[in-house]
Design goal:
Blueprint lengths: L5 E7 L7 E8 L2 E6 L14 E7 L4 E9 L13 E5 L1 E4 L12 E5 L3 H5 L5 E5 L2 E5 L3 E8 L2 E14 L2 E13 L8 H20 L8 E7 L5 E7 L28 H27 L5 H19 L7 H14 L5 H7 L7 H11 L1 H10 L3 H13 L8 H23 L4 H9 L2 H10 L7
Antiparallel strand pairs: 1-2, 1-4, 2-3, 3-6, 4-5, 5-6, 5-7, 7-15, 8-13, 8-14, 9-10, 11-12, 12-13, 14-15
Length: about 450
């Protein structure tokens, strides 16, 4: 029922009056609730998003988060009919007591997770014309982050259809926040689901997208846990996502001598500090079909953030810089000093020097890139500045942006994997053996022939 139309009766949570008949539907990249009758009039003027409860035609429960009224008022000042509400997210299966109700657990599904894990729980045996399939839940390991237990596990689903049986395997992250670290739905997504999605994209070097999340909340009156499936529409919902080919992944599991608990601890620590750089590196995979300008700018932003966090930002020694500024200002006529002070600028390194610094941090990957195209730092700085400051676009710029942006991302990946705790020689092996990296280097070499 997720992502499809849901017809039923709806009302603001806590409302004791008449329930309104209506339909929840996805329109483009937005969820909309259309009602044939008005809600409580007080909810139209609320400064706080409304939590809406619903019951579908089969008796199933629904909660709609982040709702606000969007239909235009008529000449009488009353809402138009049907009344229309914007909906941020849809939870099928429960009536939340409030948007801040604590999450008991969350299951995160990502298409490439099974292939990345390398786990295969199925065992098939045949005897006397019959086939037996066993596939118990198989856990990779458990990590603990902020008091939350994060488990990566694989299970299977048997589906019988006449004389045939279909066996489907799937891998999931199961996140169970600790009692002392309770989180809401949005906090669970921001703190755990998004970083886990970013991790899979980075390590598989493949497009990934969170499937609808499965949440468990506190028990109902009968003592049963309340489960629900969460869906928030995205711009790329109609873009098919297939599982990655394990042979083409950047770092399939297992990775060197790292165990899963160490990976979780290191990744969330890295994401807290360098999450913006990770997002910029993952842009082409997380949001496909980007313009060349976007690709080169986001790659440049990734390198800039890495430099800010990992390198000395100063163009020269701060003490020397301040002394030089003071001498210059003192020698200037008093009436020009304010003007001159504003134009002496900061002591921050220019983007080209920042690229040189990150290339050096990336060791073998940085060397491979500059061997393929010695003017890499200069050209990337020119491309970045051209996009950021809207200079004239040349016919060959789109091609340049593509050739420069992907090597910049490989440099960033090298640095990120080292920050994750992998040795430089391990990262070198992972990147050098990746076929996409070799393809991107061959494309970069074309820059030597472009005017």
């Amino acid at each position: 029922m997720l992502g499809a139309e849901v017809t039923g009766f709806w009302w603001p949570a806590g409302w004791k009056g008449r329930k309104s008949q209506g339909r929840l539907s996805t329109e483009g990249s937005a969820l909309t609730l259309a009602l044939t009758e008005w809600f409580d009039p007080a909810s139209h003027n609320s400064d706080v998003d409304v939590l809406v409860h619903g019951v579908d035609e089969s008796g199933g429960r629904h909660s709609l988060l982040g709702c606000f009224w969007t239909s235009r008022a008529t000449s009488t000042g009353l809402p138009a009919s049907p009344e229309r509400w914007h909906v941020d997210a849809h939870l099928a299966g429960v009536h939340l007591s409030s948007p801040d109700e604590p999450v008991v657990s969350m299951r995160v599904d990502i298409p490439s997770l099974l292939s990345w894990s390398g786990l295969g729980p199925l065992a098939v045996s045949g005897s006397g014309g019959s086939v037996g399939v066993s596939g118990e839940r198989q856990s990779l390991d458990v990590g603990v982050v902020d008091g939350a237990r994060i488990e990566l596990f694989v299970d299977h689903l048997l589906t019988a259809n006449g004389d045939s049986v279909t066996v489907a395997r799937s891998a999931h992250f199961d996140v169970t926040p600790g009692v002392e670290h309770q989180v809401t739905i949005q906090q669970a997504i921001a703190r755990f689901a998004t970083p886990l999605d970013d991790l899979v994209i980075l390590l598989t070097n493949h497009a990934a997208r969170l499937e609808p999340l499965h949440f468990t909340f506190g028990a109902d009156n009968g003592g049963r846990p309340r489960g629900a499936v969460y869906h928030a529409p995205r711009l790329d919902d109609d873009v098919p996502v297939v599982a990655a080919d394990r042979r083409k992944m950047l770092a399939p599991w297992p990775i060197a001598a790292m165990d899963f608990s160490d990976l979780m601890a290191a990744w969330f620590k890295l994401h807290d500090r360098l999450g913006y750089a990770v997002t910029m590196v993952n842009v082409p995979l997380a949001v496909p079909h980007q313009l060349g300008e976007t690709l080169v700018l986001t790659a440049s932003l990734a390198l800039e953030r890495l430099h800010r966090e990992l390198c000395d930002p100063h163009a020269e020694d701060p003490v020397v810089h301040q002394h030089r500024k003071a001498e210059i200002l003192a020698s200037a006529p008093p009436e020009y000093r304010d003007w001159l002070r504003a134009r002496l600028g900061s002591n921050e390194r220019g983007f080209r020097r920042k690229v040189d610094d990150i290339v050096e941090l990336a060791s073998s990957t940085g060397l491979a890139v500059t061997d393929a195209y010695p003017q890499f730092a200069k050209s990337l700085a020119g491309a970045r500045n051209g996009v950021a400051h809207a200079t004239d676009f040349r016919e060959s710029d789109g091609e340049r942006y593509l050739y420069l942006s992907e090597p910049a991302r490989w440099i960033a990946r090298h640095v990120l994997l080292m920050q994750l705790g992998l040795a430089d020689e391990v990262v070198t092996t992972l990147i050098e053996r990746n076929p996409q990296f070799q393809d991107d280097l061959r494309l970069l070499e074309r820059m030597n022939q472009l005017a």
